């Protein structure tokens, strides 16, 4: 990756003091490890493409030196792969790795030199793979920024959870303090009742002051109790929303981000290598079986299967973390007063109505975004699957070979259109994730209320 990508730091590292994030440190470390794993993944992808690119570049040169040089070249590739086995430990998890293996074996059987093949290998395919590398780097940079934003949202959600927890604990402490003061005032009144005659209580100044103090402290206690109950409710809702968001991120959003990274990856590599396949098919019937085998491997490129192997290989980094546990004061046995219950009931009804309206709005917005996402994905795949890789007819007898630059049928306008659709697809995909996060949060709050 470039120097700029290396300088970017995860937003999960920009949190408050260590004391505030002890309970979330494992999640933060796991999110940071995910970014490192994704960096390694894209580096392996690019390294694999570069190796295939280097293969075709050198293959074009070696075609001029005939079969002995090609055999030597194949042995050199196998030896290089053996020597760098540890460095290439992640290669086998990619389905495109089988293509590279077959290309090496095929090189050992090549016996003819052909000037057109040399030109095709060293110019067209190398340039196409270079375009693929640039596309992969550009897409991954954008997806990585989206990953940072999602991590930042999770961080803010956890910070909000921490704040609501502290608020609840503070209000609960205030409630206990108010209760203690009320009990003290009541005990003072009881002492006065025991020491002063009943007929003189109504005229006793100290007794009247004590009565007023009890009323005052009772009001404060009820207010403190109401605040504590509301804070507890808010804390429980935030806790459930946090658990739901984190679960959805690990179950769905991570896979969607990797899918965004891999969109068109297999198609672009297939398009480049199919130039070689079609050339071999037109050049000689003797190697048709080998060309068919390679074609089968190319069509077996499965980015989803690669993704699953990648997730299994880095199981510790992508496993769903344990649910966050509810933390509250143990003394919760008191009976809630009737007036507090009514006020809580009204508050919950208002909250329920607000959440219901928000859920309806989010559902409509999610449906609209999903339609836009499907349309953008279809258009983008049309660009990636452009059928311009067939070169079999250039070996027809008597046909004049005319060199064509890679993607010569793609005008600057089409290229700009592809990049615009690509940017729009990633932006809408990001919007979809944010809407779904909000939707799931509100759903869980709605269900809990």
Automatic annotation (TrEMBL):
Protein's name according to its UniProt entry: SLIT-ROBO Rho GTPase-activating protein 1
Keywords: Coiled coil
A Pfam family hit: FCH
Coiled coil regions, renumbered to chain: 154-202
F-BAR domain location: 25-306
Source superkingdom: Eukaryota
Xref: PANTHER family: SLIT-ROBO RHO GTPASE ACTIVATING PROTEIN
Keyword hit for Coiled coil: yes
């Amino acid at each position: 990756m470039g120097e700029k990508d290396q300088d970017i730091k995860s937003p999960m590292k920009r949190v408050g003091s260590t004391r505030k994030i002890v309970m979330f440190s494992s999640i933060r470390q796991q999110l940071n490890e995910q970014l490192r794993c994704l960096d390694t993944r894209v580096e392996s992808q690019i390294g694999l493409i570069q190796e295939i690119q280097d293969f075709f570049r050198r293959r074009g040169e070696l075609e001029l030196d005939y079969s002995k040089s090609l055999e030597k070249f194949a042995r050199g590739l196998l030896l290089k792969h053996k020597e760098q086995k540890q460095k290439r430990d992640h290669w086998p998890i990619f389905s495109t790795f089988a293509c590279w293996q077959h290309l090496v074996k095929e090189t050992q059987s090549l016996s003819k030199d052909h000037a057109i093949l040399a030109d095709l290998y060293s110019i067209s395919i190398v340039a196409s793979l270079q375009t693929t590398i640039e596309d992969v780097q550009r897409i991954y940079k954008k997806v990585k920024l989206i990953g940072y934003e999602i991590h930042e949202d999770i961080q803010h959600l956890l910070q909000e959870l921490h704040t609501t927890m502290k608020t609840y604990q503070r209000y609960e402490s205030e409630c206990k303090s108010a209760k203690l003061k009320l009990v003290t005032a009541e005990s003072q009144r009881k002492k006065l009742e025991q020491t002063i005659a009943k007929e003189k209580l109504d005229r006793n100044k100290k007794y009247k002051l004590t009565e007023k103090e009890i009323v005052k402290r009772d009001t404060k206690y009820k207010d403190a109790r109401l605040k504590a109950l509301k804070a507890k409710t808010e804390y429980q809702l935030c806790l459930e929303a946090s658990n739901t968001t984190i679960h959805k991120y690990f179950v769905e959003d991570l896979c969607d981000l990797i899918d965004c990274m891999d969109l068109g990856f297999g198609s672009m590599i297939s398009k480049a290598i199919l130039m070689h396949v079609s050339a071999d098919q037109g050049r000689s019937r003797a190697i048709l079986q080998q060309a068919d085998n390679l074609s089968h491997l190319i069509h077996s490129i499965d980015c989803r299967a690669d993704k699953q192997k990648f997730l299994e290989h880095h199981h510790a980094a992508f496993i769903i973390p344990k649910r966050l546990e509810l933390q509250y004061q143990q003394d919760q046995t008191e009976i809630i007063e009737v007036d507090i219950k009514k006020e809580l009931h009204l508050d919950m009804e208002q909250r329920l109505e607000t959440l219901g309206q928000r859920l309806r709005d989010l559902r409509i917005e999610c449906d609209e975004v999903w339609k836009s996402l499907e349309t953008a994905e279809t258009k983008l795949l049309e660009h990636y699957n452009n059928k311009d890789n067939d070169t079999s007819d250039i070996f027809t007898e008597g046909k004049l070979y005319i060199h064509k630059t890679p993607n010569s049928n793609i005008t600057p306008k089409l290229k700009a259109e592809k990049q615009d659709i690509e940017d729009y697809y990633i932006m809408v995909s990001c919007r979809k994730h944010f809407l779904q996060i909000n939707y799931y949060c509100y759903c869980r709050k709605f269900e809990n209320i």
